[in-house]
Write a structure and sequence with these properties.
With about 80 residues, the chain is an alpha+beta fold. The chain has a domain of about 40 residues. Helix content is about 20%, strand content about 20%. It contains one helix and two strands; from the N terminus they run E-E-H.
Length: about 80
C-alpha cells in the first residue's frame, strides 16, 4: 500500500498555518457537539449526546492509540 495515497492526517496538536476566519468556541465544554445514534440489542434506535469536551478527548485518545504522529509513515 502506497502511504502517499492516503488522505492527510489532521493533527490536533499542530497549529494552523493561517488563522481561520472564524473559530467556534463553545460557551461551555459540556455543550452538545453532536448526537451519536446506534441501534440497541432490542432494535430500538438510541441517541447519545456527545459534548465538545468528550469529542475532543475522543480525538486525542484515537491519536494516541493509533500512534498518529508526523514521523510515522503508517498507522494501524
Amino acid at each position: 500500500v502506497d502511504v502517499r495515497a492516503w488522505p492527510p492526517i489532521l493533527d490536533t496538536d499542530d497549529l494552523p498555518k493561517k488563522r481561520p476566519a472564524q473559530i467556534y468556541k463553545p460557551s461551555n465544554p459540556d455543550t452538545l457537539a453532536y448526537l451519536d445514534f446506534s441501534v440497541s440489542t432490542t432494535g430500538m434506535l438510541a441517541g447519545v449526546k456527545m459534548s465538545h469536551a468528550a469529542t475532543s478527548a475522543f480525538c486525542r485518545s484515537i491519536k494516541l492509540q493509533c500512534e498518529l504522529y508526523p514521523s510515522r509513515e503508517e498507522a494501524i
